[in-house]
Design a protein that fits this description.
The structure holds two protein chains of two kinds. Chain A has three domains: about 60 residues; about 80 residues, plastocyanin oxidoreductase (Helix Hairpins, Orthogonal Bundle); about 100 residues, Cytochrome Bc1 Complex, Chain D, domain 2. Helices cover about 50% and strands about 0% of the residues of chain A. Chain A is built from eleven helices and three strands. A two-stranded antiparallel sheet of chain A has the order 2-3. Chain B is mainly α. In chain B, about 70% of the residues lie in helices and about 0% in strands. Chain B has ten helices and one strand. At the A-B interface, α1, β1, α2, α3 and α4 of A face α2, β1, α3, α4 and α5 of B. Bound molecules: protoporphyrin IX containing FE (HEM). The site of protoporphyrin IX containing FE has 26 residues of chain B, from α3, α5, α6 and α9.
C-alpha cells in the first residue's frame, strides 16, 4: 500500500482540482440535465408505486374501526392499535428487517444484547469512521482488494438478513386442551415463542421448550417484559397473567400429556385460568370460546 | 423636466443589480451554475441530487399531512383514515410520503455504494462521508419514529419491539426506552414525542447536515472517476 506524506497528498489533490477547473465541463447545462432527468424519474417512480398501492385497496370498510385491506403492497392501514389485542405479528418496515433478523438469531436472553446493541453499534462506528479505517490513498478498485471485498460482502450480508427478516413465522400446530393453551396460542405469546404443547411456531423470542422457565420467572417476564419482550401488565388482568405463567411453567418441555420439569412450581394455575375465563379457561369449561 | 429615462434593458436590470450589490447573490448563483466539474462524471453522480429531491418531496408531503394529522391515541388513526379515504387526493399525499421514505433509503444505499466504490470518501473528503453517514443514521430514525404515527396494530407492536431493543443497552438502555416512550407504555406522550422528533428535531438536523454536506461537495469539487485519465495519482505517484 503506497504511503503519501501529507504534502504529497495535498499537492495531489490540488493538481487534480486544478485539472478539473481547466478541463472540466460547466455544471450547467451538463450536470443539471442529468440531475433533472433522474429526479423526474424518481418522483415518477414514487408516484407510480403510490398509484399501484392505492389501486389494490379493498373498498372502504363499513365498520369504521376495521382495517382497509390491500394486496402485495400492503393495506391502506390496519385496525387501530389496541394494547389488548390478541395474537399480532410485530413487523417493522422492510429496511429494519436486517435488525429484526439479528434479534431472531441472538434470541436467548444472554446473547440478545449482541444482536440488539453490540452489532448495530459496531456497524455505526465502522460506517462513520470508515474514511479513517481505509488509509489506502488509491481510488482504483484494482488496487483496493480489501475495500472491494468489503463493498461486495456488506450488501450480501444485509440483503440476506433482510430476506430472512421478512419471513413471517410458520403456522404452528393445534393447541392442546390444557387451561391457558388456547389463550397462549391465540395471544401475542405465539408470535414470538415456540411451545410445542400450544402448537406455536413464533421465532422472535426464545424457544420455551428449551428455556423452561419456572412459574415465578414466567410471571415476572409476562408482567414486566424483558429485553425485546413487551410488558403485558396493561394487556392482561392479573388472573390472566398468572394463568399464562402457570401454563408456560407447566407445559414447556412437556412430553405428550406428562408436564414439563417445572410443573411443580405452578400447581394451582388452573384456578387462575378458571377465574380469568374465556379463552384462558381451557376447552373443558368453555368449549364455545369467548 | 426630469432627465431622460435609461434604456428599458437597464431598467429591467435595476432590481437585479440592487440585489447583487447588497448580497452578491447573482454572482454566487452564476458561480454555482457555471463552475467546472470533472468532464467524465455522469449518471452515477446524480444520486445525491435525487436525494435532495426526495428530501424536499418528503418535507412537502409531510407538511400537508401535518395539517390534518392529530397525534393522540384517540385521533391519530382516525385522522390517517380520514386522509386516506376522504380528503381530496389525501391518499396520494400520504402514499407518496410513505413510499418516498422507502425510495429514499434505497437511494441512500446506492449513493453510499457509489461514493464507496469511487473512493470518493478519501482525502480531503472524509467530512463529506461523515456528514453523509450521520444523515443515514438520522434517516433510519425518521423511519422508526414515522412508523408509529399511523397508530395501527403493526405500528404499535413494531414500536414496542423497537423501543425494547433500545432498552437492552447496558446502563443507559432502560432510561432510553423510558425517555422514548415517556413512561412504561406507549400512550399520548409517546405519540407526541415521536411526532415532535419526526417532524421537528430529525428533519431540521438532516436539513442542516445536507447543507453542510453540499457546502463540502461544492468546495472540494466532485471526485473524478478513478479511471479518469488525467488522474494525478496515476502520473505522479
Ligand atoms: C439525504 C442524504 C444525502 C444527500 C442529499 C446527499 C447529497 C450529495 C450530493 C448532491 C453530492 C454530489 C455528488 C453526487 O451526487 O454523487 C454528494 C456527494 C457525496 N456524498 Fe452525499 N448525500 C447524502 C447522503 C450521503 C451518505 C449517506 C453518504 C455516505 C455515508 C454520502 C457521502 C458522500 C460523499 C463521500 C460525496 C462526495 C462524492 C464525490 O466527491 O464524488 N452522502 N452527496
Amino acid at each position: 500500500m503506497p504511503r503519501l506524506t501529507a504534502r504529497e497528498r495535498r499537492e495531489g489533490y490540488q493538481r487534480e482540482y486544478a485539472f478539473q477547473q481547466r478541463h472540466g465541463k460547466p455544471f450547467f447545462p451538463h450536470v443539471v440535465f442529468h440531475d433533472t432527468i433522474v429526479s423526474l424519474i424518481v418522483v415518477a417512480l414514487i408516484m407510480g408505486i403510490t398509484i399501484l398501492w392505492y389501486a389494490q385497496f379493498g373498498a372502504i370498510p363499513t365498520d369504521p374501526m376495521a382495517e382497509r385491506t390491500g394486496g402485495l403492497l400492503g393495506p391502506a392501514y390496519e385496525a387501530k392499535a389496541d394494547p389488548g389485542v390478541l395474537g399480532y405479528h410485530p413487523q417493522p418496515d422492510w429496511y429494519f428487517f436486517f435488525l429484526f433478523e439479528l434479534l431472531r438469531i441472538f434470541k436467548t436472553p444472554e446473547l440478545l444484547i449482541v444482536g440488539t446493541i453490540i452489532i448495530p453499534t459496531i456497524w455505526m462506528v465502522l460506517l462513520i469512521g470508515w474514511p479513517f479505517i481505509d488509509r489506502n490513498p488509491d481510488r482504483r478498485l484494482s488496487r483496493r482488494p480489501i475495500a472491494l471485498s468489503i463493498g461486495v460482502m456488506v450488501p450480501i450480508v444485509l440483503l440476506t438478513l433482510t430476506f430472512y427478516g421478512s419471513k413471517v413465522p410458520a403456522e404452528g400446530g393445534a393447541a392442546s386442551t390444557e387451561p391457558g393453551a388456547a389463550a397462549f396460542a391465540a395471544g401475542a405469546c405465539s408470535t414470538c415463542h415456540v411451545l410445542a404443547n400450544a402448537g406455536t411456531a413464533g421465532n422472535v423470542g426464545p424457544v420455551l421448550d428449551e428455556a423452561k422457565p419456572d412459574y415465578a420467572t414466567a410471571l415476572a417476564l409476562i408482567t414486566n417484559g424483558q429485553g425485546s419482550m413487551p410488558a403485558f401488565k396493561a394487556t392482561y388482568t392479573e388472573d390472566e397473567i398468572s394463568c399464562l405463567a402457570g401454563y408456560v411453567a407447566t407445559w414447556s418441555a412437556a412430553v405428550g400429556t406428562t408436564p414439563g420439569p417445572n410443573a411443580a412450581t405452578a400447581k394451582d394455575y388452573p384456578a387462575s385460568c378458571e377465574k380469568a375465563g374465556g379463552l384462558f379457561a381451557g376447552n373443558a369449561s368453555s368449549a364455545a370460546g369467548p | 423636466m426630469s432627465t431622460l429615462l435609461p434604456p428599458p434593458k437597464e431598467i429591467a436590470m435595476l432590481p437585479v443589480d440592487w440585489v447583487e450589490e447588497r448580497s452578491g447573490a447573482i454572482s454566487f448563483g452564476k458561480y454555482m451554475l457555471f463552475r467546472n466539474v470533472p468532464k467524465d462524471i455522469s449518471w452515477l453522480q446524480t444520486l445525491g441530487s435525487a436525494l435532495i429531491t426526495v428530501f424536499i418531496l418528503q418535507a412537502t408531503t409531510g407538511i400537508i399531512l401535518a395539517m390534518y394529522y392529530q397525534p393522540t391515541p384517540e385521533t391519530a388513526w382516525m385522522t390517517i383514515q380520514w386522509i386516506t379515504n376522504e380528503a381530496t387526493l389525501g391518499w396520494l399525499v400520504r402514499g407518496m410520503h410513505k413510499w418516498g421514505s422507502s425510495v429514499m433509503v434505497v437511494l441512500l444505499f446506492l449513493h453510499m455504494g457509489r461514493t464507496f466504490l469511487f473512493g470518493a470518501y478519501k482525502y480531503p473528503r472524509e467530512m463529506t462521508w461523515i456528514t453523509g453517514a450521520i444523515i443515514f443514521i438520522l434517516v433510519m430514525g425518521m423511519s422508526f419514529t414515522g412508523y408509529l404515527l399511523v397508530f395501527d396494530e403493526r405500528a404499535y407492536w413494531a414500536t414496542i419491539v423497537g423501543v425494547n431493543i433500545n432498552g437492552t443497552a447496558p446502563i443507559l438502555g432502560p432510561a432510553l426506552s423510558y425517555i422514548l416512550m415517556v413512561g412504561p407504555e406507549i400512550g399520548t406522550h409517546t405519540l407526541s414525542r415521536f411526532y415532535s422528533l419526526h417532524m421537528l428535531v430529525l428533519p431540521s438536523a438532516i436539513g442542516g447536515l445536507i447543507f453542510l454536506h453540499m457546502l463540502l461537495v461544492v468546495r472540494l469539487g466532485v471526485t473524478s472517476p478513478p479511471w479518469s485519465r488525467m488522474e494525478p495519482t496515476e502520473r505522479d505517484v
